Task: inverse folding
């Protein structure tokens, strides 16, 4: 049996280099090719040249940590179970052939922060979205809104069949249109974020100019330049000094004793850095973040404020739009919903995790196996580990005594 198993392994073995059909994989046309990932959206408005990209990326990463699921609620509007649907597969496992569910969520948040308003486009569905009936979404992508109509929008979205970004006109009722809740702070033309971007780009331009290699010299000649002859003589003198500097190995030139040279490429004192620091501080306060959040040293109160003021509004905007557009009235009447979930144990330090776990299990909020799963341990096979019970109290012993039947004994009088 072992010998046949080894022979079967050798016979069916496949290697990516030597086990594939050369005709099948080397002579077929695969479509449009690209040296970079074509479905990835590039940041607009020069954001990729400034430090605001790190802020956008941090917010989108933290928002993508929250899971979004297609669920069923009970009669009281509480979470009951996950739905077995294509939409839930997109939200939990794979949104499309290029993106996992988490990468898709981060793409939504990053694009929304950059553009201000984006479209979540269902690409593949089981039936035509315009036709009546229950629609199940199979794949989804993030689209850029190019033009607005009364009941439609023109969207640029990546087509994985052609490998190109294409423009399509879709009804507003079939796509999720999500606007950044922080639009007034980030995306308005005169908002704090846009002013900061302009100041940072101006600072970059000044740095490039100062480091361009120019000397920026003013030569004071010993005569007054008023006539055309004197002007030509001064121009000849300027060109002579340029030729000396460019032709010299160490960039050395000589001048007349009566000539004076003034260098201008020194740092010019201005309040540009003070304005950038002021705008950065104002932006952080309006977004509910600070430097400690970006470098990972924020305290619990700071992180809670950041989660409630920044992350929660962004995720809620996406979830509410999905719930409104991707679930029909019939589905909502059947207690279907789209909800987001945050694991609070991921934000708890290890020093406080044991005490919190004890409180949660003692007050019968979570079971022992749920705590073990949250910290990455295998669930226990003990049935008591799945019970919502205070382990510090003795388990109540059920009364298992069976009731006895009364038997009437008739005494017979013997004669």
Result:
């Amino acid at each position: 049996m072992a010998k046949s198993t080894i022979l079967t392994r050798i016979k069916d073995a496949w290697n990516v280099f030597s086990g594939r059909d050369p005709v099948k994989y080397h002579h077929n046309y695969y479509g449009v090719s690209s040296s970079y990932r074509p479905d990835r959206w590039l940041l607009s408005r020069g954001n990729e040249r400034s430090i605001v990209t790190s802020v956008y990326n941090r917010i989108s990463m933290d928002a993508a940590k929250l899971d979004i699921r297609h669920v069923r609620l009970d009669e009281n509007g509480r979470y009951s179970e996950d739905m077995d649907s294509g939409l839930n597969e997109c939200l939990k496992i794979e949104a499309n052939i290029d993106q996992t569910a988490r990468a898709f969520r981060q793409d939504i948040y990053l694009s929304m922060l950059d553009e201000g308003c984006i479209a979540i486009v269902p690409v593949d569905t089981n039936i035509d979205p315009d036709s009546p009936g229950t629609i199940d979404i199979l794949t989804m992508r993030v689209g850029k809104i190019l033009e607005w109509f009364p009941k439609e929008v023109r969207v640029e979205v990546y087509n994985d069949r052609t490998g190109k970004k294409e423009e399509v006109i879709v009804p507003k009722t079939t796509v999720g249109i999500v606007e950044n809740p922080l639009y007034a702070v980030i995306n308005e033309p005169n908002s704090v974020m846009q002013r900061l971007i302009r100041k940072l780009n101006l600072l970059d331009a000044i740095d490039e100019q100062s480091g361009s290699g120019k000397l920026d010299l003013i030569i004071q000649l010993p005569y007054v330049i008023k006539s055309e002859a004197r002007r030509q003589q001064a121009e000849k003198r300027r060109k002579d000094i340029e030729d000396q500097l460019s032709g010299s190995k160490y960039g050395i030139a000589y001048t007349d004793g009566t000539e004076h040279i003034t260098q201008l490429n020194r740092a010019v004192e201005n309040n540009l850095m003070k304005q950038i620091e002021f705008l950065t501080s104002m932006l952080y306060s309006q977004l509910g973040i600070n430097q400690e959040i970006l470098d990972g040293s924020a305290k619990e109160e700071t992180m809670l404020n950041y989660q409630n003021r920044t992350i929660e509004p962004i995720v809620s905007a996406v979830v509410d739009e999905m719930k409104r557009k991707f679930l029909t009235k019939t589905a909502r009447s059947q207690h279907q919903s789209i909800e987001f979930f945050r694991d609070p144990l991921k934000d708890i330090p290890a020093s406080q995790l044991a005490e919190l776990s004890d409180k949660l299990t003692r007050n019968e909020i979570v079971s022992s196996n749920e705590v073990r799963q949250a910290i990455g341990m295998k669930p226990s096979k003990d049935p008591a580990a799945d019970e919502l019970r205070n382990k510090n109290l003795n388990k109540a012993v059920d009364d298992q005594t069976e009731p006895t039947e009364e038997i009437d004994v008739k005494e017979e009088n013997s004669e």
Remarks:
- The chain has three domains: 32-181+292-342, 192-273, 347-390.
- Confidence is low (pLDDT under 50) at residues 399-407.
